[in-house]
């Protein structure tokens, strides 16, 4: 089987899980696509998972109420071993990259990190990934059982499978963890997360100032229920946090619509959003590279155009 560890939050399957299902379908590896749901009170997640996978393994246990690297690694390795997995796919989130190497060690398997593309080369699993500050794309491969993490936003979210997969409860022997989570504070934001957003409004240096960014980029995003992105120029200038950076050294996104305001369209930016379904750009320079990838473009000043768009969206 191809074992995927589902990422979920608040009783909902994460978009990254659907992306991992696509990665599994494209990998050409043997066996049914199997989603492993770890957590407590995860019945709704398992149900969603069954729509896209061949089978779903559910471990609904009090010991899995909180993410913990030692416990997640032990649980994943145990299921991979018992199910004779050909491949273990884990999300390239911070937590995923924390426990995936531990799974590889437990299984004595090779580990490929941050894949942006997966395929088979005979018996080997082949992965593409960025290296050298994303200036180089390298292809790596490994035989046999492989543990791989997938860079969020690199694969299109999977559509539902032809038939719903079967759900099975699994028994697990969980280790006592040496690390205790003593607190958690969730950032309160009514805005959709960048990697989960269907629509993203991104601001570049052309927006002019942090104040304009808040008024126009955040203003438009809030008016249409979109996520907010930024270019590296804007992040380096300290206008916006790194978490919002889109591009080779930031997040990779694939929304249904990507609205770029005052963004030039440098190659390092395009590599993080070029797979978006529809790209809409506003830039005062008709020769800006962003217009080469844009489906719709307005040549003009963002400061003049965006307030009118926000007004129209509010109505
Ligand atoms: P600029 O290139 O300065 O473009 C501003 C645009 O705004 C221009 O096209 C201009 O015509 C337009 N403009 C100006 N005023 C207005 C106005 N009033 N109305 C409308 N349009 C206006 N970049 C990223 O974004 N993400 C990355 O992850 C990333 N990684 C990188 C990694 C490496 C190794 C390197 C070398 C570079 C990386 N970069 C990345 C930087 C990238 O090369 C560009 O410098 C950056 O994307 C430019 O950001 P920008 O479009 O905001 O700014």
Describe the protein's architecture and organization.
It is a single chain. By secondary structure, the chain is an alpha/beta fold. The chain folds into two domains: 168 residues, HUPs (Rossmann fold, 3-Layer(aba) Sandwich); 116 residues, TPP-binding domain (Rossmann fold), CATH 3.40.50.1220. It has nine helices and 17 strands. The strands form four sheets. It has a seven-stranded parallel beta sheet with strand order 7-11-6-1-4-5-12, with helices on both faces. Helix 5 runs parallel beside helix 9. The radius of gyration is 21 Å and the shape is globular. The N and C termini lie far apart (51 Å). Flavin-adenine dinucleotide (FAD) binds next to helix 6, helix 7, strand 16 and helix 9. Flavin-adenine dinucleotide binds next to helix 6, helix 7, strand 16 and helix 9.
How do you describe this structure in short?
This is Electron transfer flavoprotein subunit alpha. With 315 residues, the chain is of the alpha/beta class.
Query: For the CA atoms, what is the radius of gyration?
Result: 21 Å
Write down the overall geometry.
globular
The CATH class of the largest domain turns out to be Alpha Beta
Query: Order of strands in the sheet with the most strands?
Result: 7-11-6-1-4-5-12
Give the number of helices. 9
Number of strands: 17
Pattern of helices and strands: EEEHEHEHEHEEEEEEEHEHEHEHEH
What is the helix fraction of residues, given as a range? Answer: 25-40%
Structural class: alpha/beta
GO molecular function, one term: flavin adenine dinucleotide binding
Domain Electron transfer flavoprotein alpha/beta-subunit N-terminal: 2-181
Organism: Deinococcus ficus
Cofactor: FAD
């Amino acid at each position: 089987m191809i074992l995927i560890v589902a990422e979920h939050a608040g009783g909902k399957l994460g978009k990254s899980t659907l992306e991992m299902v696509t990665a599994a379908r494209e990998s050409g590896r043997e066996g049914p696509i199997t989603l492993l749901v770890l957590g407590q009170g995860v019945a709704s997640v398992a149900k969603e998972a069954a729509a896209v996978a061949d089978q779903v393994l559910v471990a609904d246990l009090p010991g899995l109420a909180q993410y913990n690297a030692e416990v997640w690694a032990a649980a994943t390795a145990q299921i991979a071993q018992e199910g004779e997995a050909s491949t273990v796919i884990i999300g390239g989130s911070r937590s995923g990259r924390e426990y995936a190497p531990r799974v590889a060690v437990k299984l004595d398997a090779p580990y490929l990190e941050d894949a942006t593309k997966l395929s088979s080369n005979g018996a080997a699993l082949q992965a593409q990934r960025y290296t050298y500050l994303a200036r180089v794309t390298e292809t790596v491969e490994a035989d046999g059982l492989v543990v791989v993490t997938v860079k969020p936003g690199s694969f299109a979210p999977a559509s539902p499978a032809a038939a719903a997969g079967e759900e099975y409860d699994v028994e697990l022997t969980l280790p006592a963890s040496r690390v205790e989570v003593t607190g958690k504070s969730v950032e309160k934001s009514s805005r959709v997360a960048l990697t989960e957003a269907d629509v993203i409004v991104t601001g570049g240096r052309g927006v002019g100032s942090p104040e304009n960014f808040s008024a126009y980029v955040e203003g438009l995003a809030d008016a249409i229920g979109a996520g907010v992105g930024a270019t590296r120029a804007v992040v380096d200038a300290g206008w916006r946090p790194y978490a919002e950076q889109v591009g080779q050294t930031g997040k990779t996104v694939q929304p249904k619509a990507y609205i770029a305001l005052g963004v030039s369209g440098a190659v390092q930016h395009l590599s993080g959003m070029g797979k978006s379904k529809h790209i809409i750009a506003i830039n005062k320079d008709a020769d800006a590279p962003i217009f080469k990838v844009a489906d719709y473009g307005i040549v003009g000043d963002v400061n003049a155009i965006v307030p009118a768009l926000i007004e129209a969206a509010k109505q």
